[in-house]
Write a structure and sequence with these properties.
The complex is a heterodimer of chains A (108) and B (265). Chain A is 37% helix and 6% strand. Chain A has helices at 3-19, 28-33, 36-47, 76-80; one strand at residues 52-57. With 265 residues, chain B is mainly alpha-helical. Chain B folds into two domains: 1-105, no CATH class; 120-265, no CATH class. Chain B has helices spanning 4-17, 32-54, 56-62, 64-77, 92-98, 108-123, 132-136, 163-170, 175-183, 210-220, 225-228, 234-246, and strands at 147-150, 155-159, 192-199, 202-208, 250-254. In chain B, the strands form two sheets. Chain B has a three-stranded antiparallel beta sheet. In chain B, β3 and β4 form a beta hairpin. The longest helix of chain B is centred in the N-terminal third of the chain and has 23 residues, at 32-54. Chain B is globular. The chains are: A mainly alpha (108), B mainly alpha (265). At the A-B interface, α1, α3, β1 and α4 of A face α2, α3, α4, α6 and α7 of B. β1 of chain A pairs antiparallel with β4 of chain B.
Amino acid sequence: MDRRLIASSVFAAVIGAAGAATLAPSVATAQQMMSKDQMMQVQKANKDRAMLQHLVACYGINAAGKNDCAVGVHSCAGQATSARDPASFVLLPAGDCEKIAGGTLKPA
Amino acid sequence: MPSLLELQRGFCAALCDGGDPPTSVIGGALPAAARLAVYRNNVFGTLTAALRLGFPAVARLVGSAFFEAAATRFITAAAPADADLNRYGAQFADFLAADSAARDLAYLPDVARLEWALNRALHAEAVPALTAAGLHAVPQAHRAGVRFAAHPSLSLLALAHPARAIWQAVLSEPEALRNSRLAAIDPGGPGEWLAVLRRDGEAELLALSPPAFDFLHALCQGVPLDAALGQVPAATAASLLADFIGHGLFHACLVPDAPGPDDGD
């Protein structure tokens, strides 16, 4: 079967499958449109489906405030004499990375 | 008297590089350099806060002192090009990868890439996803050569480190859970192939197998369906493509401009 034919049959299968209410659980609709041979292929494919694994929904990022001009933190005059000097910051990471096994840090 | 452009350039250089203020900045109750330092601190404070909001896992991994220092170096190297700070930080991961101070944390740039993808997803333009009905509308003759346009919220990440597990662990609450998850991570563990997008208002992470990733990547690059099928066994292509569409990974499908000679029907 050449690629164009494969593409067409893939397309047909997809329309059927995607036409089902939700995709993940089954390809029931697709099965009605496919030959037994195609069906077996798709079933095998579903078995192999460590392929696409739904992982995490919902990431509670709080993006509000990013564009606020007052997020900052510095009372003006108090910080005026200690402008940050990038060169004075050569530090080691010292956060939760230390809790990862094998993640011990050496001085740079 | 300097031109406005000269004043702006001098002001900007003094802000970003910490150089002497231009002569047109004059002293008062505070000397000129201190006046400029107030401005400088607010610029750096605001941008650092924006980065901290966008990269909470990186910030936790390295601690606040290191994060501030790295952010300061990054801001100096790559000031925002856009007034919308939701769009600031695209180059942060690459900066971390090149930054010698963070080199012991090989996985850190990948965690930053993941966080940037989540940022992108959450702030991308809201456009509808391609549905099966949209596919159905493609004429039979054009189906093999159909191309797909990725949803604007979609990022594809091929990561060399287990960044998702690290990201998930370090943002876990409460602390006891976080610590146990972090302790269970092998930072040298296998990499991951992820699709990140926004769906129904929330960010979604999908783990893909390498062939599925390559297939999706090719389609998102605009490779026509028939050509992209070389990436995966035909048997799995249909279920993968159905999953891609079911997860709303595409925005649209495009029919070929010039149908081939055998597009008869």
